[in-house]
Amino acid sequence: MSATIASGCAAGRRTRLSRHATTRVRQRSIPASVVDALLDFGERARSGPGAETCYFTKRAWKRFASYLGQEARHFERYRACYAVIADDGQVVTACWRR
């Protein structure tokens, strides 16, 4: 399921996760491929000094689903995820919207 994303989304780069983000991603069952997809396809908005939030809007999800094709149905549950990214590019945390 995530092989499609791993080879395409983060093409050649490795997403840097803080220790906190690594723990939270594991606790919240958010795959690393979804964090990569958020960074590649998600919309971004400033969330205070030094950070921005990356999330799926309808338009962003449509781009991502078009990229995945039929595999998109396996990722539908992750539409409500978002990630907070520091200005240096490191992922600070990843969460579920309520």
Please sum up the structure shown.
The chain contains four helices and four strands; from the N terminus they run αααββαββ.
Task: Please provide a written account of the structure.
The termini are far apart. The chain has a 4-stranded antiparallel β-sheet. Helix content is about 35%, strand content about 20%. By secondary structure, it is of the alpha+beta class. The longest helix is centred in the middle third of the chain and has 11 residues, at about 60-70.
- Low-pLDDT sequence parts: 1-8
Mean pLDDT: 88
Number of helices: 4
Strand content: 15-25%
The separation of the N and C termini measures 25 Å
Class from secondary-structure proportions: alpha+beta
Shape: globular
Total number of strands: 4
Features:
alpha+beta; 4 helices; disordered N terminus
Topology summary:
Blueprint: H1 3-8, H2 19-27, H3 32-41, E1 43-46, E2 51-55, H4 58-68, E3 81-86, E4 91-96
Antiparallel strand pairs: 1-2, 2-3, 3-4
